[in-house]
Amino acid sequence: MLAPDSRSLQGQDVSSYLPALRTVIQTQATRVFRTTLECRGQRSNGEAFLAGIWFSTYSGPSGPRLAAIVVDLSEDLRNREELSLDHLLKSSRILMAAVAHEVRNICSAMLVVHKNLSAVPELGNNEDFHALNTLIQSLEKVTALELRPSSVQSATPVDLTSVLDESHVLIDSAYRESEMEVCWHVPSTLPVVLADRHGLIQVFLNLAKNSQRAMRTASTKRLDVTVVEEENKNVVIRFEDTGHGIASTENLFRPFQRGAESTGLGLYMSRAIMRSFGGELLYEPRPRGCCFAIVLHAYSPVEESVHA
To answer: Residue 149 has what pLDDT?
Structure first.
């Protein structure tokens, strides 16, 4: 890993390959370390790589010592970046589809108005009026070329427990800063589900952020995240808050809603992400506050082998 040319490393200064360890060694006299580190590494041929280091320091008869296990994480980094780019592209397609849909609605209304105005005799021979009709139809054709989500099935087996653990850390830290409470009701064991890991975390964070905004002026500020495994092999994750609730739910999942913070795309995109891998996002009415349910399908290797 450090010497692809099979050169012997014995007796060489490790800091030329892993510079970050020099700092550890220099501070070892005052502190004892037992931790992990990701840093830049360099091979003997000058090639850089991402190093993952598990190390500990200790004192020996001849002075401070350091023991470390080093692995090459370059491939993991590439995979993470590729997944992030793929998820960004999926989100962009969803956003473009939402914009195209709204523009098509406006074009349809404009064509109706244009047709009604065509009955006015004075406009019958007006070239600009006829040109306007052409422009509207051209815009409508452009929006028909919307970027649709890929037809390739993006659902893969996902360890729901690890996704919830990661979300737990991300959500709790944000709520702690806002002096709000998050209560997690998660069974000790959960099945593997069919989903997209990055998309699922994005939906969790969006729902938690919506609840955080809704509870700013509430007397009780608590978000309950409850996970239930149902008999039909579905797993339902509910985000229920004590905020002011939703007055009108008719167009809840439509983009660009009036009164919505930012662009009003959060719920639209969250549901689109869920549906892209066969899940669902539902609103469940409550007497107080707001509740959204994420529905996931449990992964069954037996069913997969039957359909293969």
So the answer is: 47
